[in-house]
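Morning F.,

Quick status update on the modeling queue. The single chain you submitted on Monday has been processed. Sequence for confirmation:
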Amino acid sequence: MNLLESIPTVIGTAAVGPALLILWLVIAAGERPGPPAKVWTAFFLGAASISLLGIVRAPFNSILATPENSWITQAFHSIFGVALPEETVKILVIVAVSARRRPFADPMDAVVYGAAAGLGFAAYENLAYLVQHAEMWRSLAALRSVLTVPFHGAHGIIDGAYLALGRS
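Structure tokens below.
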């Protein structure tokens, strides 16, 4: 096997590896980790939730359709075109996974499910970016593994914490 044949495997590992490492750290830090099936469900639903972004962005299309390239347009795009839809689909995943939780479940389960949903989202997004920009995948993988992946996981943790607080 030469280097060109192994690149898709290497790109896939570089895309998904950081998310799995951080998920392992989050689970290991917990005193009583939730059911593994639910954690993996949250991870894979987080990855699949990217397909819902178009639906969640639809109400904001009129705001984002401004042709100017001013800083206000960029700010609106960042908030209504990226941040709000991404956090919305992650929250929907956390709610879906933790909706049928067992009685007296640890509220921290929602935090772990939030981390799993955010990291699943980050893993799929990473894979898409690295495949799309295969010519510079090494630097992009290094940059996204220390910035984007932890931030998606942290935002998932925050979402899960607020959902747990709202539930209790």
